[in-house]
Design a protein that fits this description.
Length: about 290
């Protein structure tokens, strides 16, 4: 008769196999809207920085898609179809074909915990199919961007410079409580806001911060062209400070680029009022300015 210890040893391989299968199993359709929340990107197969990377960043009701510096757009999931754009679930296919320029429609081919495969829909080709064709594949293979650090931030600051065109100049500080100071300049107009973001939105930013491997972030990233914006970012934790200067959108980690985009668009999600803050209350004003010299 086998002892309990022997039985446990015999069962261990089967338990491990069962756990592996449960981790790799398909997500059920009714769980798609919950499980899709997070950041996704196509995998780089080379070290060539010119290789295009498609990204999707899903929250509960909006997503930033295609590139990690696009505006946020509504999306919804119906059965196994992901629609990015205005909701059209009450329209016929013929009506939706005429609206093709206004949205993308992807068939969810496969969806596991950390992988997502998307394809175009035969009845709704055009825009979605052209996008997929650009990447030389019948499907778009996305991987979830997983946390790479456990940093709990105290405060984060971002300053974005102008370009030769109409690019806005941005200055932002956000603390761990969700308090925001935001200044934006688009010549000749200048305005500043002080306000607060919701706990839900703050958690999205916390997750994006943890998706970045901060000890590996370089002090400087540069694109091989001119006429672009420079982003200076500072993150402080309880006992550390991280800094990086990013010119263009080219060499920096995708997770860092997605965080910068989220911060740059923060006024879409904050309850704000016209600024009355004293400039002396800002923590990073001189440091961020110095990083951009």
């Amino acid at each position: 008769m086998k002892t309990k210890t022997q039985m446990k040893k015999l069962l261990l391989p089967f338990l491990a196999a069962a756990l592996l299968l449960s981790c790799q199993s398909e997500i059920k359709r009714d769980q798609y809207p919950i499980e899709i929340i997070g950041d996704w990107a196509t995998k780089r197969d080379t070290t060539d920085q010119n290789e295009k990377v498609l990204t999707f960043s899903f929250s509960e009701d909006t997503c930033s898609y295609l590139m990690p510096f696009k505006n946020f757009t509504p999306y919804y999931i119906s059965s196994d179809t992901l629609f990015v754009g205005k909701k059209h679930n009450d329209r016929t296919l013929d009506e939706m074909r005429s609206l093709q320029p206004s949205f993308f429609a992807f068939k969810i081919v496969s969806f596991q915990k950390n992988t997502l495969s998307l394809a175009s829909i035969d009845q709704l080709p055009n825009r979605t199919q052209r996008l997929i064709d650009r990447y030389g594949s019948e499907t778009i293979q996305l991987q979830r961007i997983l946390p790479k650090s456990k940093e709990s931030f105290e405060r984060i600051g971002l300053q974005v410079t102008h370009c030769y065109g109409p690019c806005p100049v941005i200055y932002l500080e956000l603390d761990k409580e969700g308090n925001v100071y935001f200044k934006r300049v688009v010549n000749p107009k200048e305005w500043a806001l002080a306000g607060r973001i919701s706990e839900r939105r703050l958690n999205i930013i916390r997750n994006k911060i943890q998706n970045v491997s901060w000890p590996d972030v370089e002090s400087n990233y540069t694109a091989p062209w001119t006429d672009d914006q420079t982003n200076a970012i500072i993150l402080t934790t309880a006992d550390k400070q991280y800094r990086s200067r990013v010119y263009g959108k080219y060499a920096e980690p995708i997770a860092l680029r997605m965080l910068i985009h989220e911060l740059s668009e923060i006024t879409q999600f904050m309850g704000a009022q016209l600024d009355t803050i004293d400039i002396d209350q800002l923590h990073f004003n001189e440091e961020l300015y110095g990083m951009l010299k």
